[in-house]
Amino acid sequence: MAGGRLPGPASPGADVPVHVGLRTSDMDEAREFCRKLYYGPLRIDPVGDPGRMRFAADVVTIGPITLGEVRYGTDIRITIEALETAYHVLVPLSGAVRSRHRGAVTLADATRAVVYRPTGDIELDWPGSCRLLSVKVDRAALEREVDAALDHRVVSPLPLGATFDLVDGPGRTWAALARLLLHELRCPDALASRPRMAARWRDMVVSGLALTVEHPYGEEPAGLQGPHRPRTVKRALDAMHTEPWRPWTIHDLAALTGVGVRVLQESFRQHVGQPPLTYLRRLRLDGAHAELTRADPGQASVTEVAYRWGFTHLGRFAGAYRARFGVSPSETLRDRA
């Protein structure tokens, strides 16, 4: 163990970083370390040779974020119940990791990071050759940041994309920033270890993630046309979020906002990145997906969930769902059994 005692739950206002590290070949010790630093309901099972176990972790907590570089040295499988209180990003620094979350299978490697929402259990196949940058962000902190960046009330949990690019664009910059912050905070005499500077870097990691992850509030959140959307766009978005199941037409939304159809469509193109009804369909799909990942297969049906989210044509719903999540609605529900 290095860097002091394991910290308790992070306080969102805390500016003093706490660094802890562990090198061990004892699986029980590694489990206890990860449960205290990340999540209590976490199960770690060796899949490869336990004798090759060489767990190594350096983790820093500061306010609403926890950053760490972690490897196991042998193949393992991790299962985690719904995160509930946090969003989580895994960035492979070497090797690749395969995970199943919310009915979708994702492979993360040096080119793509994987993103986990607070809902839905996670199953992670982690090879011994893989070393990860693991970033946990307090749920409320990220949601506040997205809300502030877009000047728009957001749903919770955020309907985030499952991955983002690490080769080009904001994802590459964000991953480099998070890794640099971890490196600096591990050095007690570094500039970033001073509370005032650490707080600023911490906020940059949270705000940077808000502008990096994919979400339906805009295809390119970092390129929004200014911090404030027109009142007409905000009224239409609020209406769709309040009643996503309602059979909105483009004419209904235009009448609600007091502008013509063409004006509303152009405003959405500029300030949201997609047409109003495309946004509405994606909002409904994400809502149905979130409900199916939580539902009890013995108590719910795909038909009920689809109708509840405004889908009246089950065949079209199933096709759009598979195109977005890579699996059918029934597979998502069945995986909850």
Automatic annotation (TrEMBL):
The keyword Kinase does not apply. SUPFAM superfamilies: Homeodomain-like. Signal peptide: none annotated. Transmembrane segments: none annotated. The keyword rRNA-binding does not apply. Keywords: DNA-binding, Transcription, Transcription regulation. GO terms for molecular function: DNA-binding transcription factor activity; sequence-specific DNA binding. Residues 234-335 form the HTH araC/xylS-type domain. Coiled coil: none annotated. This is Helix-turn-helix domain-containing protein. The lineage of its organism: Bacteria, Bacillati, Actinomycetota, Actinomycetes, Micromonosporales.
